[in-house]
Design goal:
heterodimer, A: about 600 residues, Pyruvate-ferredoxin Oxidoreductase, domain 3, 4 domains, 8-stranded mixed beta sheet, 6-stranded mixed beta sheet, about 40% helix, B: alpha/beta, Rossmann fold, 12 helices, about 30% helix
Chain lengths: ~600, ~350
């Protein structure tokens, strides 16, 4: 046997959608994480309820790399439909744990096979007819545990954690895992180099959280009270988590009264409309959607921009155009969302790059929306939103809510009623508003999406229109300096990388790989639009800057080019990944090294 | 002589708005006047009123009454969504939506229906003239089959009757009236505001510029000749005593949530406004006979409204602060540890 490979491997489980395989995958993930070993799971699932192939990739590295790997070390082949194709994905010397009935004749000879009669075991060893299909997947967890040496205690923890709210399910699942575990012990001897050993030092203080869970918690901590949404993958789970968390943390146990309203609207137009109505009336309000929903929200987004109504809109991006690949990830809504709606509309966009930022920026988005009285978009994606990520525990907020410039009855009395809804008193483009229900005769004004003057009166006047549009531009300039600044990590390299959102994980790993090859690169991660001035300064400090993103057209690359002085434009390069799979580090290192090898 | 004050101490002038920019003689202007009268007599506090609208001639009118109240002129056909959201944020507000037949029966039909489905507590007035005025006279979806445009084009489609749609959906308050019939419109507006739930009030409101000609079924003369009121409506607000000086058996009395009463005096056949099937029948029969039936068609005071089914507090959600909305430090720490 070759040199052991410890805690550095990628497991890929190929199963059938709707069979309960995701539960088995999560139990395995939690068990390994419990051993102190960093895990990075990626679920590649179909737009389907039951029957289509689905894959779960569990990457394990001692360093804690979070990006997708493009190499499979251990294949768990449960799905005959994809068996032949799955077999080709395994790296040389890898392991194939497969249903015994799948033929390995004419298969690869450079891998280790462990054929297990999963179907027969399920039939003979699992007593419950109703649960057999679900529990059958657990058998593979036991086999993998046997192959890799996962201790029983870790498996117990994984099951208990997975069934936190269903303790009754713990024992039957453990029994099913035991079936696989025992089968391995009784029938195989170890033929491959892969093993897992308990670790310390990396996962302590860390938790496993999905981005949509983090965003839901962030919204709750940000004080959201009105949520209107329409189901769409990969955004739905954000609102579903919110519903569950609200039930737990916002309901009065005495009478069931809830300090939040979550409305499933009839479509995305109504969803964003309700959120805007609530924002206008003074509540912290939000909606969450994905590409097709964002398209429908264009009209209302323009109204909220022009009438200056606070609202938070989450876009958990998936692949487009149109329906696209509903269960695959993408960063291709950036340009569209930035100017969503007709006629010189421009928005504030927050770009979380980690699950911790999904929490923090979701929370702070409500402050920004109130402070700037405008829609604030939070752009996450399927990879960030629906996969589990290892993250430090989130911090409790120390800041109070910033409700922005809202005049109360007392304020109006002090001003003797002298105020104008759209007059720029402070010079920052942000004006004062009143909320409906304010008991003062000067409080009321008429909000409209048609042309208006400082007093909110209808006007088609050329000067009044231009003056208002200039002020809105000024407001965006104020925001440019207030929104989350880019995060830079520079060591004086001549080459820089710029990225945003979930691409971060692959960039972190790519930099380590490049560094090991003697090619150190600097990094700036953009966290908001409009772009900070720091981006141009970062470019000015580097000879070449690669903008890495997960869309076809280089949307961030384009935005940065537009923001740069002409003499810096030539320094920019573009690296794009857009096949729907989360970007692996190799998709950055390979094109970068290729381009660096050619003299500019 | 000083002006007469209503029961909250305001003169009628406090309910006026900006000067109208609609055509002279427009039915909508009459409705605006009825609105001023109804709101003044009801004693609605202007700061608690939220005037909501979509896009079109009708949707401009909230600027023409109660100038000191908040108003929101949103996007075409989407008044119900804005109204629903604003209501959830602050259920103390009196939500008053003004829409048109294009805004409601075409682009906004979906939102109209879903607002009814949820029974959002609001008054929804449709200023219904069967035509698109601002874009110069195209048919709307409420135009009757066979009715004509000013230049002679004939409508070849079945009309969508907002009242029939509302009844089919189980709307908790459905009424129809005519802008020229202030005696009926004013009490119906008051009753709609007093009602807790979605109150649909379809008011035929002639467009003098594009749809007031001989081939129209939404003209002043057609409506005057064909209107059939099912009952005389009067409204007694909760702050006034009920005096019944009608003959026994001639009046139906409907008590609303806030203690107000709608008194309906029989005219011709006896219509029971709590019988939804009867209301549908009345509309169908009138249509078959070529009449326009007006009055309170249906009211159901038992149906729970949206804020109640949502279990939100009476205190406006907008008023809650971080102490009410954030997890406590202990809850937060415990919750985070569950992700380990």
């Amino acid at each position: 046997m070759t040199e052991p490979i410890v805690n550095d491997l990628t497991i890929q489980a190929a199963t059938v959608n709707g069979s309960g395989s995701q539960t088995a995958n999560l139990v395995l993930t939690r068990a390994i994480f419990h051993m102190g070993i960093p895990v990075a799971p990626k679920n590649v699932f179909p737009s389907n309820i039951e029957g289509l192939p689905t894959w779960y990739q569990l990457r394990i590295t001692p360093e804690g790399h979070m990006a997708r790997s493009d190499k499979v070390d251990i294949l768990v082949a449960y799905n005959v439909a994809t068996w032949r194709e799955d077999l080709t994905t395994v790296r040389q010397g890898g392991v194939v744990i497969h249903e015994e009935a799948f033929s390995t004749a004419d298969g690869r000879s450079d891998v280790t096979y462990y054929g297990v009669p999963f179907a027969k075991l399920a039939k003979s060893k699992i007593q419950s007819d109703t649960l057999r299909k679900q529990l059958a997947n657990m058998i593979y967890v036991g086999v993998v545990a046997g192959v890799l040496g996962i201790p029983w205690e870790a498996l117990e923890h994984g099951v208990r954690r997975q069934f936190l709210s269903k303790p009754k399910a713990v024992q039957v699942n453990l029994d099913a895992i035991k079936v696989g575990f025992d089968y391995w012990q009784d029938n195989f001897s170890k033929q491959d180099p892969y093993r897992l050993e308990p670790m310390t030092g990396v996962v302590e203080g860390k938790v496993l959280v999905e981005g949509n869970q983090a965003a839901a918690l962030g919204a709750l901590m940000g004080g959201v009270t009105v949520v209107a949404w329409y189901p769409i993958t990969p955004s739905s789970s954000l609102c579903e988590y919110l519903i569950a968390y609200a039930e737990r943390f916002r309901a009065d146990p005495q009478n069931g009264v809830k300090r939040i309203s979550v409305v499933q609207a009839e479509d995305e137009l109504a969803a964003v409309g309700m959120a805007i109505g609530a924002g206008w009336a003074g509540a912290r309000a939000m909606t969450s959607t994905s590409g097709p929903g964002i398209s429908l929200m264009a009209e209302f987004s323009g109204l909220a921009y022009y009438a200056e109504v606070p609202v938070v809109i989450f876009d958990i991006q998936r692949i487009g155009p149109s329906t696209g690949l509903p269960t695959r990830t993408s960063q291709a809504d950036l340009g569209f969302v930035y100017t969503l709606s007709h006629g010189d509309t421009k928005h504030m966009v927050l770009l979380p790059g980690t699950v911790e930022e999904c929490y923090e920026l979701a929370r702070d988005a409500f402050d920004y929306a109130d402070r700037f009285q405008t829609p604030v978009f939070v752009l996450s994606d399927l990879d960030l939103g629906m996969n589990l990520w290892m993250t430090p525990e989130f911090k409790y907020p120390e800041k109070s809510f910033d409700r922005g410039k809202v005049l109360t009855k007392d304020d109006l009395e002090k001003l003797a009623g002298e105020w104008a809804r759209y007059r720029d008193v402070d010079g920052d483009g942000v004006t004062y508003r009143t909320l409906p229900g304010t008991d003062h005769p000067a409080a009321g004004y008429f909000t409209r999406g048609s042309g208006h003057d400082e007093m909110a009166r209808y006007t088609e006047g050329a000067d009044a229109y231009a003056r208002n549009m200039d002020r809105l531009a000024r407001k965006l300039e104020t925001a440019r300096h207030s929104l989350p600044a880019p995060i830079a990590d520079e060591n004086g390299a001549s080459v820089g990388l710029i990225a945003f959102g979930s691409t971060h994980a692959a960039v972190v790993e790519a930099r380590e790989t490049l560094s090991a090859q003697g090619k150190s690169v600097d990094y700036m991660r953009v966290r908001a639009l409009p772009l900070s001035d720091q981006v141009a300064r970062f470019v000015s400090r580097h000879e070449r800057v690669y903008v890495v993103e997960q869309n076809r057209d280089g949307q961030l690359y384009d935005l940065i080019r537009l923001a740069l002085p002409p003499e810096l434009v030539d320094r920019l390069r573009s690296i794009r990944h857009y096949n729907g799979q989360p970007i692996p580090a190799a998709a950055i290192t390979e094109p970068l090294m290729q381009q660096e090898a050619v003299p500019a | 002589m000083s002006a007469t004050l209503n029961h909250v101490g305001l003169p009628r002038d406090a309910y006026k708005g900006a000067a109208t920019t609609l055509c002279a003689g427009c039915g909508h202007n009459s409705i605006t006047n009825h609105m001023v009268k109804a709101l003044y007599e009801l004693g609605v506090e202007p700061h608690l009123l939220a005037k909501m609208s979509g896009i079109g001639c009708s949707s401009k009118t909230p600027a023409y009454f109660v100038e000191t109240a908040h108003g929101f002129n949103g996007v075409h056909g989407r008044m119900p969504a804005l109204t629903t959201g604003a209501h959830l944020a602050n259920r103390q507000l009196i939500m008053l939506g003004v829409s048109g037949d294009g805004d409601t029966a075409s682009i906004g039909l979906g939102q109209f229906m879903h607002m009814i489905r949820r029974n959002v507590d609001c008054t929804y007035i449709i200023e219904d003239n069967g035509t698109y005025g601002l874009t110069k006279g195209q048919f709307s979806a409420t135009a009757d089959l066979g009715s004509m445009q000013k230049k002679g084009a004939v409508n070849t489609f079945q009309p969508i009757d907002p009242c029939a749609v509302a009844l089919a959906l189980g709307c908790s308050f459905v009424a129809r009236s005519f802008s020229g019939d202030g005696k009926q419109v004013v009490p119906l507006i008051k009753a709609a505001i007093a009602h807790r739930g979605t109150a649909i009030l379809d008011i035929i409101s002639p467009c003098v510029t594009f749809n007031d000609h001989d081939g129209s079924t939404k003209s002043y003369s057609w409506v005057k000749d064909h209107e059939e009121s099912i009952a005389d409506v009067s409204f007694i607000p909760f702050f006034e005593e009920v005096h019944v000086d009608y003959e026994p058996g001639t009046v139906r009395d409907v008590r609303l949530h806030d203690g107000s009463h709608i008194m309906l005096k029989k005219l011709g056949q006896d219509h029971d406004p709590t019988d939804r099937q009867a209301a549908i029948r009345v509309i169908e029969e009138a249509r078959a006979e070529g009449h326009l039936v007006t009055g309170l068609l249906y009211v159901n005071t038992d149906m729970a409204d949206f804020a109640s089914t949502e279990h939100i507090p009476n205190r406006p959600l907008k008023d809650f602060g971080e102490e009410d909305l954030r997890l406590t430090r202990d809850d937060f720490a415990r919750f985070m540890s569950e992700f380990a």
